[in-house]
Predict the 3D structure of the following.
Amino acid sequence: EHYRFYEARNKLWIAGTSNGVHRLSGVDLNEEYFGDKFISDVFSDNEGNLLFSTFNNGVMVVPENGMPDLMEIEGIVDPVSLHYDDDSGMFIGTMDGSLFIYTDGRAIPINEKGSRSVQHIFSWPGFESVIFDDGQIKAWNKANGKSVVISNASLKDAIRELIAPPSAPLKRKIGFGTDL
């Protein structure tokens, strides 16, 4: 079985190729959560909520008080990834290759459906774009709302490297690993 690892609320969450997700506490895996659902991403928002995206079951929101709630967002079908960007807010990638920005209680599409699910979304403070993979590696510009294709390859990993000290103007070098 393959495993995916997520960090949320300073805890490590582990999901496999079967249903459910586990939280690592110390050296032990705590009880399984959502054993009847396939968890595709785990995220903690700036309000302390835990968000679990699922295949075919929407986004589950677990507020800080621990009571789960299912959040249905109009227009979002089969979310597979969540990403919070400090500048722009919440991004939601879907199984059908769509990427949405969630703002003011609405999901706004920012790309046309890609050829594969949007499982990887990257950004960091001060960087002008959000990088995602919908079958092509694309950069969505936060300022003008337009996407450009960086590569026709599939994104396997994105690595950022700060090439100036924190006090200097931001200059970043990005490396992409692809399947080509």
